[in-house]
Amino acid sequence: MAKTLVVAEKPSVGKDIARVLGCRERGEGCLMGEKYIVTWAIGHLVSLCEPDELDEQYKRWSYQTLPILPQSIPLKVLPATRTQYGIVSGLMNGKETDSVICATDAGREGELIFRYIYEKCGCRKPITRLWISSMTDEAIQEGFQNIRPGADYDGLYRSAVCRSQADWLVGMNATRAFTLRYDTLLSVGRVQTPTLAILVKRHQEIAAFKPEGFCTLTASFEDYEGQWFRDGLDPDTHIPDKAQAEAISTQVRGQTGRVLSAETTRKKEPPPQLYDLTSLQRDANRYLNFTADKTLKLAQSLYETHKALTYPRTDSRYLPDDMIPRVVQAMRLLPESYQKLVPGAMPQGKLPVTKRVFDAGKVTDHHALLPTTRRADLSKMSPEERQLWDLVVRRMLAAFYPPCEYDATRVITQVGEHTFRTTGRVVLQNGWRDVQPLEVMPRKRKSKDESEDKALPPLQAGDTRTVTKADVKEDMTKPPAQHTDASLLLAMENAGKELEDEALREQMKGSGIGTPATRAAIIERLVQVGYVQRKGKTLLATPKGIALIGIMPAEIASPETTGRWEKALDEITTGKQDPARFMEGIRKLSAFLVRYARENQQPANFPEDARRRKFRAQQAQRRVSQAQAVEGVRCPLCGQGKVLEGDRSFFCSRLAEGCAFTLWKNALTRGGGPELNARVVALLLTHRAVRGSTGTVALTANGCVAFFPQGQEHPSVQRSLRWEKGGNA
Fold this sequence. Notes:
The protein is α+β, with helices and mostly antiparallel strands. It is flat, with a radius of gyration of 34 Å.
């Protein structure tokens, strides 16, 4: 009997699917049942080939082989998971399999993992797609009842391939080109470099910032206070000179103030939207001190292991209308400790339905993050998993609570020629703020007119008060804050623009840097390669990262440009963008970056990290072990090591200790001189000059080796002994 092969992304997910499908018979790397065989990848089993796997010439990094622009990049099986690939390939092409279900993670990367395996296997059997947003048994069963044609996701696959190949082309070419240009290993990427640029820009803003002193003046009007302000300036409460502030204080103290206006406005603060992954990562960083990467791993565990969270790698903050019953069920199945909060979210037992939450047109591949309709067992979660799950639960409840309502009062009091502003706020209904204690979720200041949570006495225009005291406070302007995971994620989501407004952020969807699924890995990659370091909660660009951005063109360092590439990838998914046109642009960018690196004359000083020093030391030791000593000749630079002969140059036996003496064999050939050999070098370094039939090779006073053609007083060519790294090679 023919069977259907189900390919999951991970063993744990595969085993959950197998249990639901009744596949209980164990096979090698799979589980079998009457109708289905369930197997799994272990993440990526197949990837794009490396350049040196395309052609031997790419093994040596050289400008002559750049740019590397193959029309197609073949796939290879990853050595570490070759055994599992063989199992999956055998099952895909096996006689008992008549069709294949893609059950990898329901997103761009999951689609790529499956399709690359399918393509590398040479499989031609029909494929369908399992697309689910939670790992509960009910969700898996429903997913198999609503299995989709694989062709429905061809656009997603095309987008994934373009993303994969674009990162390969830009990364391979730019990394090699800039590494060759600056003689230090420089990792350059289509997405990581503009992310680094955001951090470097903040570093530069802070470095350029010059603090300025200012004063503020607060007057006490018997039963309320007011702050001096000047209309039309921002910040309008700053008095630049202390003497001026003291003078105003003296002028108003003891005088009568008259209320010019007293306005009270009823305001509503709407509940927050549901979480997508990026907003969850930001809040987890602010309130729980989790890095973006840690939040993603915890969320993935809550999704896969505990079945307590819907698919976490989502970029949507909305739900389709058919989710209403599931939200109600999820609320009713919450642990007892949350049940006292549920009635506020479901007044009269009904869920409020608004476009702020339910909007199918704004649901992308997956809906917003929610707890699942499975009763959660908090005792099986780690403390950190419980904390993160609590954030998601409270956000779900808060989204359906009424707005926070309050009266905002603004009073303007005049004392002589000076004006003072007083603001107050009286909360009438906490609304959604009852779900989260204020100390956990502090209220954002909406404006300077809502800065204080305190009631004011009843005031109206014409009322008078005496100024009982007027206090001057000295302060300094502050630089922009260093980025944290939270603020960097926000800047990445909005292509460098830190937009706090939720509506504006929604308009930027699809044009940020990276995707919700990849942003955490991008940040961790920058830390790993030494461009960024963590200091407490802050992310700081290192000297190496700052130097890198200093030599990068805007075409690769601009967050806005990268945001446009990401937008194009989204449009490829929906069929609005031609993949060939996108890739042509990437090829042009890759060629431009090589050309730019080769022609760039901008100097840069890259600090050598420990990994690079170790690599150089290993290379040096290998060169020394493979070289022959030039008999009886000491290094002219350090005076301690021996002169060794390698394949293309002469160098010091203390190369690994840092001696930079180098003399290339072909250093003089382009000027008509001879190619240097051991005999000539021994004579040269012993007697400082060697005469031959065509001229003289000599050491000059400024530390160069030079060739003087027969009968000429001036050298036709000379090269430094100390720093000439390539000669004419």
